[in-house]
């Protein structure tokens, strides 16, 4: 069966790391076909908009989207809907992608890269489930003078069904892991968080095999640096998830291995998704051949697992990345010795992916 993948390389190092992910995914699953479309600043240059209709149409014809990065200079004074970053918000809305999965994983051999002591992160394996289409980012906004005072207003809005469906994603994921969910909110202050806590608690009763703990967001931020291995699945609203997922990535020692999946349903139900690394456009290293493609490749592994149902291929890719990070070669951001180029790292992953046995469990 052919798997149709829409590739949206975007800006900065996006095209470089996405090309590496395409190579690895193609090696693991030769039945994949890939078609590219413009997005972000590149799309503004070619189409006058960060998210052309042709790009959305390609996504609708595909099983999943492999996304690079968007952003660039010269957009500071542009309204939000005309900035390159508007593309990712538009894609989430167009495809109903309300659940963002952000693994935070301490790969063997990289523990010393963490700002925490190695013994605090060794074996770290958690996932943050972030609600993507509600909250402050999507609520009504205004900037106007009120009684002579220039006043900005962002509105935090959550409806019960939005909380319920993201909670189900978290509990569904936890069932396949260590069966523990931590729901993060600010219910001592925010009415929206009070509803959040109530709805998550209601959903938890349908998953008696999964343990639920509630935690205030300020405490969660502290616990992530005090004892990050205590967490399994964290579920939280849009803004809190945005912040905590980047904190968790840096606890592992590098954002260069931070993959993500944006889904429109529970991970156990194979369906359409958007997959992207979180390393950003990194304009200072564009075209130098030194960008770390690990996060993009790991995002491709998530694509294989959640959208294509190809679990064995996903595990082969993850094993190959883990072995390459542990044994080398590593790119400049992770190497104290002679660094590898992006191409050399990708080639090493592909070689290991082809050599690994299909049925083995990834050793991370």
UniProtKB/TrEMBL annotation:
Keywords of the record: Amino-acid biosynthesis, Branched-chain amino acid biosynthesis, Cytoplasm, Leucine biosynthesis, Magnesium, Manganese, Metal-binding, NAD, Oxidoreductase
Catalytic reaction(s) noted: (2R,3S)-3-isopropylmalate + NAD(+) = 4-methyl-2-oxopentanoate + CO2 + NADH
Cofactor entry: Mn(2+); Mg(2+)
Any one GO CC term of the record: cytosol
Isopropylmalate dehydrogenase-like domain span: 4-349
Broad class of where this protein is predominantly found: cytoplasm
Cofactor comment text: Binds 1 Mg(2+) or Mn(2+) ion per subunit.
GO biological process, any: L-leucine biosynthetic process
Binding residues for Mg(2+): 218, 242, 246
E.C. numbers: 1.1.1.85
Compartmental location: Cytoplasm
Domain of life according to the entry: Bacteria
Binding site for substrate: 92, 102, 130, 218
GO-annotated molecular function: 3-isopropylmalate dehydrogenase activity; metal ion binding
Protein family according to the UniProt entry: Belongs to the isocitrate and isopropylmalate dehydrogenases family. LeuB type 1 subfamily.
PANTHER family named among the record's database cross-references: 3-ISOPROPYLMALATE DEHYDROGENASE (PTHR42979:SF1)
HAMAP family per the UniProt record, alphabetical: LeuB_type1 (MF_01033)
Subunit text: Homodimer.
Protein purpose: Catalyzes the oxidation of 3-carboxy-2-hydroxy-4-methylpentanoate (3-isopropylmalate) to 3-carboxy-4-methyl-2-oxopentanoate. The product decarboxylates to 4-methyl-2 oxopentanoate.
UniProt cross-references to NCBIfam families, sorted A to Z: leuB (TIGR00169)
Protein name (record): 3-isopropylmalate dehydrogenase
């Amino acid at each position: 069966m052919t798997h149709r993948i829409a590739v949206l390389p975007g800006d900065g190092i996006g095209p470089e790391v996405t090309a590496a992910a395409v190579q690895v995914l193609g090696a693991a699953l030769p039945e994949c076909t890939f078609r590219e479309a413009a997005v972000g600043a590149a799309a503004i240059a070619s189409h006058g908009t960060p998210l052309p209709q042709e790009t959305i149409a390609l996504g609708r014809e595909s099983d999943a989207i492999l996304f690079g990065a968007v952003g660039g200079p010269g957009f500071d004074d542009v309204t939000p809907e005309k900035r390159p970053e508007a593309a990712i918000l538009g894609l989430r809305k167009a495809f109903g992608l309300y659940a963002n999965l952000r693994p935070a994983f301490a790969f063997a051999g990289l523990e010393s890269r963490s700002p925490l002591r190695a013994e605090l992160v060794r074996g770290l394996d958690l996932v943050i489930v972030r609600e993507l289409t509600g909250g402050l980012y999507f609520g009504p906004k205004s900037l106007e003078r009120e009684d002579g005072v220039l006043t900005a207003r962002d509105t935090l809005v959550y409806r019960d069904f939005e909380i319920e469906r993201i909670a189900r994603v978290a509990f569904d994921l936890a069932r396949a892991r260590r069966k523990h969910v931590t729901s993060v909110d600010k219910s001592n202050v925010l009415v929206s968080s009070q509803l959040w806590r109530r709805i998550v608690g209601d959903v938890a009763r349908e998953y008696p095999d999964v343990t639920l703990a509630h935690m205030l967001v300020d405490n969660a931020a502290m616990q992530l640096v005090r004892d990050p291995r205590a967490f399994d699945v964290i579920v939280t609203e849009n803004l809190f998830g945005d912040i905590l997922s980047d904190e968790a990535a840096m606890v592992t020692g590098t954002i260069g291995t931070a993959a993500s999946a944006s889904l429109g349903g529970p991970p156990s139900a194979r369906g359409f998704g958007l997959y992207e690394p979180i390393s950003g456009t990194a304009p200072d290293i564009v075209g130098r051949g030194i960008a770390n493609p690990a996060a993009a490749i790991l995002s491709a592994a998530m694509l294989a697992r959640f959208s294509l149902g190809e679990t064995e291929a996903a595990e082969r890719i993850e094993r190959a990345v883990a072995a390459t990070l542990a044994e080398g070669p590593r790119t400049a951001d992770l190497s104290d010795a002679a660094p590898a180029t992006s191409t050399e790292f990708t080639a090493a992953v592909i070689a290991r992916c082809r050599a690994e046995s299909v049925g083995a469990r990834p050793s991370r």
